[in-house]
Fold this sequence. Notes:
Strand content: 25-35%
Number of helices: 9
Number of strands: 11
Distance between the termini: 60 Å
Oligomer: single chain
Radius of gyration: 28 Å
Largest sheet: 5 strands, antiparallel
Order of helices and strands: HEEHHHHEEEHEEHHHEEEE
Helix content: 25-40%
Structural class: alpha+beta
Amino acid sequence: MSRRHRIIFESITDFAIIVTDRDGRVTDWNTGAERVLGWTAPELIGQTIERIFTPEDRANGRVEIEMRDALQSGRANDERWHLHRDGRRFWASGEMMPLREEDGSHIGFVKVLRDRTAEHLAGKALETAEARLHQAQEAGGVGLFTVDIASDTIFPTPEFCRIYGMPVQDAYPPSAFEDLIIPGDRHLVSSASSRQSGEAPRDVEYRVRMPNSGEIRWIARKGELEVDGVGRPIRF
């Protein structure tokens, strides 16, 4: 590696860059790898890259799978738990690529990864919170919705769709639900114009006719308007 390339290689500290031979033995290990994984270069050079994988991934041949995929596809994406020198696990996002000479001959691999544990755990926490919210909505018969006023599009939760007897979709025109309201109660609900003007009714009860059975159902609906910096309604 030239001096210029060595300076670049060592200046990258947020990403671990690991170079191996064709058998997966470490031949180079940058400062970022020391920071992310804990081992120093002398400790890992000559060792197999399996050291940074969890025991279950080593048992499942994950390193061999990555090397094979990298050779076949030019790169192998990798988002999974890895091991730090102190034994703790961290969630890493990265990829492995084959390393080739100018003539195209394969001489090894380069693995680049970054610690994304915080982002991964935050995502898992959000998934758990969303699942609990969905369970609570089902148990309480409560559906949530947001109407984007500029596009006049409603974004309902699955329980909101169920309450109205509509197929679960991520988005609908508000008229899909407004048309279910019996004519005598339509003056009680919001409309595109009342949402735009900020005069949409906030707390109402009205009747809807279920689209499949024709059953009449009472709906209690509460809404709030969100406005922008100059007071214009943007969401209901």
